[in-house]
């Protein structure tokens, strides 16, 4: 696997090694020992163990996010797309961070097979670029309804450069999410 640093040092893109021949392809989608070794090499903290896997399927133009969970149920996420394509975004919501309020976006798709590591302290969202986009993510914490929170996906202070789409499909809940502010993300 190859690890690609982003403009926010705690966010990394993982490019798996894919073995391909006339029969198709094979890749190791997760190896905890190797994942931890790569994080250590980058002097990044090791996450808690992954405890939950989630899978969603979205139509083209569906935008989900920006979601996060507050402590004590904060989650790190290892995300990937197995079918279709998505523009995936993580926003630093750690008030003490030098990259507070900044975002990183990466295209995840079934061709590049990239994975995106998003540690605790980040809001997360994505837009499906194709129909039947299958989005998978491992989390370091269990979902907790009482701890769920969101930031408005088109907040002008964050100013995410979402890909242009003919139309967007955003849930009422995500449309009504509050704008980003230091008070919003306090635990």
Can you tell me the CATH class of the domain at 49-175? Answer: Mainly Beta
Report the span from N to C terminus. Answer: 35 Å
> What share of residues is helical?
under 10%
Low-confidence stretches: none
CATH level 4 superfamily of the domain at 49-175: Jelly Rolls
Q: Look at the helices and sheets and give the structural class.
A: mainly beta
CATH fold label of the domain at 49-175: Jelly Rolls
Overall pLDDT level: 94
| Shape estimate | globular
SSE series: EEEEHEEEEEEEEEEH
Pathway: Carbohydrate biosynthesis; dTDP-L-rhamnose biosynthesis
EC number: 5.1.3.13
GO molecular function: dTDP-4-dehydrorhamnose 3,5-epimerase activity
InterPro entries: RmlC-like, RmlC-like_jellyroll, RmlC_Cupin_sf
Summary tags:
187 residues; mainly beta; globular; dTDP-4-dehydrorhamnose 3,5-epimerase activity; isomerase; dTDP-4-dehydrorhamnose 3,5-epimerase; EC 5.1.3.13
How is the topology of this model organized?
Blueprint lengths: L1 E4 L6 E4 L2 E4 L2 E4 L4 H10 L10 E7 L3 E8 L7 E7 L1 E8 L10 E7 L5 E4 L3 E7 L4 E7 L8 E3 L18 E2 L1 H4 L12
Parallel strand pairs: 6-14
Antiparallel strand pairs: 1-2, 2-10, 3-4, 5-12, 6-11, 6-13, 7-10, 7-12, 8-9, 8-11
